[in-house]
Amino acid sequence: QVQLEQSGADVKKPGSSVKVSCMLSGDKFGSYTVTWVRQAPGQGLEWMGGILPIFGTTDYARQFQDRVTFKADKSTTTAYMELLSLTSDDTAVYFCALGLGGTFDTWGQGTLVTVSS
Amino acid sequence: DIQMTQSPSSLSASVGDRVTITCQASQDINNYLNWYQQKPGKAPKLLIYDASNLETGVPSRFSGSGSGTDFSFTINSLQPEDIATYYCQENDNLPPITFGQGTRLEIK
Questions:
Q1: DSSP A74-90
Q2: What is the pLDDT of residue B93?
Q3: Which of A82, B2, B59, B77 is the most buried (most CB within 10 A)?
Q4: Which of B43, B90, B96 sits opposite A61 (nearest CB)?
Q5: How far apart, in whole angstroms, are the C-alpha atoms of residue A105 and residue A33?
């Protein structure tokens, strides 16, 4: 069974950075895309971008491209999302999701990142 | 970028009702439209892909239709476990990927 397991909740200070991991079990990355989506409290889903681990190619949403980095380690089938210069507006649940193209049929459980002084 | 307009933003219906949610794209996206269900505190779950294809294991009371710019999602015979927020998502001409604003479904 293909599953994505994300790292645990985190609390960060404004101006710091956060790194969230997303480990794939039950399969290899293959041709899958790992996408990152976040959801602020009580809000909708916001696409942050994605990575194609087989090539390491990335796409970033315009609003994040200056401060987000996606990486993937094929040997451990783990993807990472690092977000810099955190503000309170970055308080959200961050999801990774796996799929082909732009359709995502496997999701991680989500990681709550709280930014607070 | 493509904009997705989803309506209604919230909906209240009775068990057994037929429920329909619509999603309109700002430009032609062919049939590259997915529907997800998200229950409180949980990750989204893919229900419908490519506008009308039912994901494996999803009950047949869920269906989707449409192409081009206008799409709809229907639940036939609403069940209590269908309480959730539903999102459309376009995946034409990536990137970026755009989600609709969501429809919160409640039981009367």
A1: TTTTEEEEEE-S--GGG
A2: 77
A3: B2
A4: B96
A5: 11
Q: Please check the confidence at residue A30 and state whether its pLDDT lies above 90.
A: no
Residues of chain A neighbouring B34 (CB-CB closer than 8 A): 102-104
B98 touches chain A (CB under 8 A): yes
Contact residues of A toward B, CB < 8 A: 35, 37, 44-47, 49-50, 59, 61-62, 95, 97, 101-105, 107-110
Q: What is the pLDDT of residues A38-61, one digit of tens each?
A: 999 999 999 999 999 999 999 999
The Cα–Cα gap between B49 and B30 comes to: 12
How far apart (Å, rounded) are the C-alpha atoms in residues B48 and B2?
20
In the beta sheet, which residues pair with residue B53?
B49
**Phi, psi values for residue A13, rounded to 5°:** -85, 150
Q: What is the pLDDT of residue A90?
A: 98
Question: For residue B90, which amino acid is it?
Answer: E
Out of A44, A47, A107, whose CB is closest to B43? A107
| Residue pairs between chains A and B whose CB atoms are closer than 8 Å | 63
Nearest-CA neighbor of A45 among B84, B101, B26, B106?
B101
